[in-house]
Amino acid sequence: MRKEIRIRLNQMSDAGYQEFSASLIPASGRGTMLGVRLPALRAYAKELTKGDWRAELACHEDIYFEEIMLRGMLLGYACRDIDELLAYLADFIPRVRNWSVCDSVCNGLKLVERYPEKTWDFLKPYLESGEEFSVRMGLIMILGHFVKLGYDGKKNSRKREITMLDFQGPEEESPYLERILKVLDRRFTEGYYAQMAAAWLIAELFVTYPVRTMRGLKELGLDAFTRKKAIQKIRESRIPEQAVKDYLKEALRRE
Q1: Is 191 exposed, middle or buried (0-12, 13-18, 19+ CB in 10 A)?
Q2: With contact defined as beta carbons under 8 Å apart, do 172 and 138 qualify?
């Protein structure tokens, strides 16, 4: 089956896209990236779910960047049992060596939102692993599936606008907000991609729970780079008004 998959992936490859994509994903390995576009990979992953997808996941050898991506996409499309999904994820996470596979796969794992406690417990060792992409996987999973998780199964939305007047109101609450902030209360020394994931997560928290996250920015034990990038990402958003962005800039200057 793996031979057939490699033939199919080579048939879908695009040399021009391979050169462009490899320049954006340094860790992908130029010699092992075929240049298959993500929509084509997703369509192929869905096609594979109609066959013996477990046999494909049982194969331990990946040569191409697209094989690893396809493996992760299969988890999102095929797995319907949370224990099976987490078992496959435990095998998959050590294979992740770049941001593209990490982020694309994490976003597709919608099943975990039905089992947040089991998923949170699963993620904790990866968040504390000290390994750059294992940490990023944990942070991006939180970003995609826990930030907006509200009470009684409801979803919290981003604010449409954030003004300085908002910070005179009460701090927001959500089932996982304090736990997420606790995860972020440290220096991220694992590497650039872990730091950028933490910054992205903070920025998303800010536009969803601005009052509580503002206090977090003042109190979290972040390393200087991650804190700087988090504030930069917040200031790049259209949601906070200019006065909020200016306040954050001044806070950064005092750091």
Answers
A1: middle
A2: no
* Contact assessment for residue 200 and residue 233, using Cβ atoms and an 8 Å cutoff: yes
Q: What's the Cα-to-Cα distance from 218 to each of 87, 106, 215, rounded to whole Å?
A: 38, 29, 5
User: Which residues, at least 6 apart from 228, have a Cβ–Cβ distance to it below 8 Å?
Assistant: 252, 255
Pick from 4-8, 58-62, 228-232 the range whose average pLDDT is largest: 228-232
Residue 252 token pair: 């950064």
The answer to whether 71 and 56 are in contact (CB under 8 A) is yes
Q: Which is nearest to 148 in space by CA: 107, 113, 119?
A: 113
Query: Which residues neighbour 82 within 8 Å (Cβ) at sequence distance 6 or greater?
Result: 111, 112, 114, 115, 118, 119
Q: How far apart are CA 149 and CA 173, in angstroms?
A: 11
Q: What is the pLDDT of residue 152?
A: 85
